[in-house]
Amino acid sequence: MKIKSQKDFWSGLMFMVAGIAFAWGATNYSIGEGARMGPGYFPLMLGILLAGIGLFVTFEAMVVETEDGEKIGKAAWKPLFFIITSNLIFGVLLAGLPALKIPAMGLIVAIFALTFVAALAGEEFKAKEVAVLATVLAIGSYLAFIVMLKLQFPVWPSFITG
Length: 162
Description:
Shape: extended
Strand content: under 5%
Mean pLDDT: 91
Low-confidence stretches: none
Keywords: Membrane, Transmembrane, Transmembrane helix
Helix content: 55-70%
InterPro entries: DUF1468 (IPR009936)
Number of helices: 6
Radius of gyration: 21 Å
Organism: Ramlibacter agri
Protein name: Tripartite tricarboxylate transporter TctB family protein
């Protein structure tokens, strides 16, 4: 069988590998059942769903004809760098890095930093739009994680809250 869309084929394989890895990793936890879910239930179902989507996309890449075969282009290094960097910065700012004496800056500062650094990955950067997006994300995250779920992690920098 001939691959008719390289992008879809390799994307589907990537989804299948990630899904199988999540499902396999979830088997180390108690799965439970639908009525009494264990900690491994959600990652198992998510992994199975992701692998299923990958299987469908891979199958479609071998069946559906495309105009030019949708060849895979060169690697997008700039977006890759800024997206990974923004996630690392988020983690460090959220919890701090005691080994390097970096204090926890909290959820709000971490979300603003994540949004601004990730926005650098795009073709154009509009500070006003990014600031609005960061504000909406910060408020939404605060409401979802702190108010509704009552999770216990720093919201503001530790030098402000004491």
